[in-house]
Design brief:
This protein has 712 residues and is an alpha+beta fold. Helices cover 28% and strands 28% of the residues. The strands form 9 sheets. Strands 1, 26, 27, 28 and 35 form a 5-stranded mixed beta sheet that branches. Strands 29, 32, 33, 34 and 36 form a 5-stranded antiparallel beta sheet that branches. Helix 1 runs parallel beside helix 6 and helix 13 crosses helix 19. The radius of gyration is 29 Å and the shape is globular.
């Protein structure tokens, strides 16, 4: 914790120096020409000159493989059959619920399975590449063997199972069984026609590629890679490595050279984990969370100059430990960048990973950012969450007030944004923009809370005293949890950043500390766990924590309870609204960046095209609610569906609108201020000092911190 405080203080100090220095003249607009020589127009990039082109697949279909310029896809199995497509046109229908389809030298293998108490039988049906049925092969598997995929290479069939690779000859005779780590690895057909075993450490974090030695029933490591994904290549190189900066050709020794660098071609392609060769330098790019696109050779004149805008991100420390690729950790942001770049004729947004693929710690990354800002070379925009708090930037006046852009927009106004008031309340202006949000709140039964939209500490203790043994007011409640949730909200009224003052040495804050001490803890442990879908409706808990991630979630949660529900949020000292907005990847624009006025183009696009959570753009939110009015209760839904199954009612819409009107704050908070409260409250909670002493020490430390960071 002290290390985190040190980082933030260091950032604040450097930003103070930046603010005190002379203002750098705004940079002249520079056009991003990528790999094109601005004088001659010739290509000078390290990689090739490429463009992308979208493709359309039948609804529900997904690509399975490419061959001789054709794209083969499989539709979602339904109604007892599976459809296989070639270049978007139906090729044939398989009378069964196929697991997958695979490419072989002789044709297309359709994989199905029959299960019984004695074991599993893999049913492999072979069709020609023109769709004609050829034959069926049945392979008996042990009872504990689960088939996860198959491939054909040469005269052998390779079956990837849960913890083994089983290799068969063309007649179905078992040749060898090679063990591997359970549920790990998959089969990769290289551009050289050889089959390999690919084991990823973690998505985007490298892995091991091995050859398959059938004679000796083992894998032989070919090479390892540290970043990105390794996929199938073509006749020029057996593999391709997919990295955030582009795609690289890779040989059998793991040596690479660039095929295409995104920035050189001014391309944004997100979510790519697999490639397929279509011949003539053309590739199909795709992945589980990526729309398939074609990568096609282009001419330099196809790349039109645009102004480069940079958006910097710093993943949280936990993410740096597990997800070094920011295009994975910030998948939603990357998707927005890609969509914007695909349609913008003026600007090209580039994502900057301040951690440099986790090679820098959070402290080092912040120092690098400070240096860039001091030299006038800072990014145009910042994603301000996680390790990158907005408050140091706000207090040094480094962020652009986006209200000027919003008011100058002929088609938008502050009233169009659900979050405008809450962001202004917490930031002193519209210094952040988020295209969508979720709502963090608590529900209680109407019989207990009525039309209240909040509850006080006194309400909490009164209700908790009424709860019998084995029942709880707040599930998994601890003193740390209560202090964190209550004090983070109290900061809003206690700190006045503009004049550099604060007030914690008062009866209200003392009451907050005492409430934290006096509460009945109900931590989750083996002796104190409650399971069930409707605990509040059954009376086992008095309030229930919910995250509303979609516009219809409040209606869904209320229906789940089955009784009239009040939306009360977290208890507050005065009983005011304890519900907050959680911003999805809020973005701030650097006031002294190279192109602050152009950043609104990107933010505007994100607002108008939000595709996740609850849209900040009110007309888009209303559109979602209108669609919910017409939900078909007879529509077929898969077993994982967790939404409304009948039309939303006007009463449910009204309750949701009222809630949005009540919420006045976001979950943004100053982590350094919270750390001070936690450190000084700990001895009080341990019985080593009084609440008044704790409040006095917090006031003393906070006064120094706020004076340094606040008023000028």
């Amino acid at each position: 914790m002290k290390r985190a405080i040190g980082i933030l203080l260091l950032l604040a100090l450097c930003l103070s120096l930046c603010a005190c220095g002379e203002k750098k003249e705004a940079a002249e607009p520079a056009q991003a020409v990528g790999g094109v020589d601005p004088v001659t127009g010739a290509w000078q990039g390290q990689g090739g000159c490429y463009r992308t082109e979208s493709i359309t697949l039948p609804k529900g279909a997904s690509v399975r493989f490419c061959r001789e310029g054709h794209i083969y896809a499989m539709g979602n199995p339904s109604m007892g059959e599976t459809v296989v497509y070639r270049d978007g046109e139906e090729l044939f229908r398989y009378a069964g619920m196929a697991f997958t389809v695979s490419r072989g030298e002789e044709g297309i293998w359709v994989q199905d399975e029959e299960r019984s108490e004695n074991g599993n039988t893999l049913v492999l049906s072979l069709y020609s590449f023109e769709g004609a049925y050829q034959e069926t092969l049945r392979l008996d598997l042990p009872a504990d063997c689960f088939s996860l995929g198959m491939a054909a290479a040469g005269d052998k069939l390779y079956l990837k199972c849960s913890d083994t690779l089983r290799v068969y000859d063309r007649e179905g005779n078992i040749l060898c069984v090679i063990p591997h780590e359970e549920w790990q690895g998959d089969l990769l057909l290289g551009g050289d026609g050889e089959l390999y075993f690919r084991e990823e450490r973690k998505s985007g974090s490298g892995g091991v590629l091995s050859t398959i030695d059938v004679d000796n029933a083992c894998f032989t490591e070919l090479f390892t890679w540290d970043r990105g994904f390794v996929s199938s290549g073509d006749g020029e190189s057996p593999f391709l490595q997919i990295l955030p900066e582009g795609i690289f050709r890779m040989d059998r020794e793991g040596q690479t050279r660039p095929l295409v660098l995104w920035d050189e071609c001014l391309l944004s392609v997100s979510g790519v984990t697999e490639t397929g060769s279509l011949g003539d330098g053309r590739f199909l790019l795709g992945g589980l969370f990526a729309e398939p696109v074609l990568l096609l050779p282009a001419q330099p004149e196809d790349i039109k100059p645009r102004t480069m805008l940079t958006l910097a991100v710093l993943p949280t420390q936990d993410a740096l430990d597990t997800e070094p690729d920011p295009t994975t950790y910030y998948a939603n942001v990357v998707h927005s960048i890609s969509a914007f770049n695909a349609q913008s004729a003026d600007c090209y947004v580039k994502l900057l990973d301040l951690s440099e693929g986790a090679s820098l710690s959070a402290e080092q990354a912040l120092m690098k950012l400070n240096t860039q800002i001091l030299s006038g070379q800072g990014p145009d925009m910042l994603v301000l969450n996680g390790s990158l708090s907005p408050f140091a930037f706000l207090r040094q006046g480094l962020l652009r007030d986006l209200k000027q852009d919003l008011e100058a927009d002929p088609a938008l106004s502050p009233e169009d944004l659900v979050l405008a008031r809450a962001i202004e309340n917490d930031c002193g202006g519209l210094y952040l923009m988020a295209d969508c949000f979720s709502v963090e709140t608590r529900l209680g039964l109407w019989d207990r809370f009525g039309d209240a939209w909040g509850w006080s500490f006194d309400d909490y203790f009164r209700i908790d005293a009424e709860m019998s043994d084995g029942k709880m007011t707040i599930y998994n409640l601890t003193r740390d949890y209560f202090l964190e949730s209550s004090a983070s909200r109290y900061l809003r009224q206690a700190i006045h950043w503009k004049d550099g003052t604060c007030d914690f040495e008062n009866p209200d804050f003392v009451r907050l500390l005492e409430a934290c001490r006096d509460l009945r803890e109900t931590p989750e442990d083996p002796e104190n766990m409650i399971f069930g879908w409707n605990l509040m409706g059954e009376g086992l808990i008095a309030t229930d924590l919910v995250m509303l991630n979609e516009a219809t979630d409040l209606a869904k949660e209320c229906r789940r309870v089955g009784r009239s529900v009040s939306v009360i949020g977290w208890p507050t000292p005065d009983g005011s609204c304890g519900t907050d907005f959680t911003l999805s990847y809020p973005i701030g624009v650097m006031k002294n960046g190279a192109h602050p006025e152009l950043c609104w183009q990107f933010l505007r696009y994100c607002l108008l095209h939000a595709e996740r959570a609850i849209p900040n753009y009110r007309p888009l939110l209303e559109q979602q609610l209108e669609e919910a009015r017409h939900i078909d209760p007879n529509e077929e839904r898969d077993m994982w569906y967790d939404g409304l199954t009948s039309p939303i009612t006007e009463a449910e819409i009204s309750q949701f609108h009222t809630l949005l009107g009540k919420v006045e704050h976001t979950t943004l908070r100053d982590d350094t201020a919270m750390a001070i409260i936690r450190e000084e409250a700990a001895p009080f909670l341990a019985g080593e000092r009084s609440a008044e002493d704790a409040a006095r020490l917090i006031q003393s430390r906070m006064s120094i911190y706020v004076a340094e960071q606040g008023g000028k």
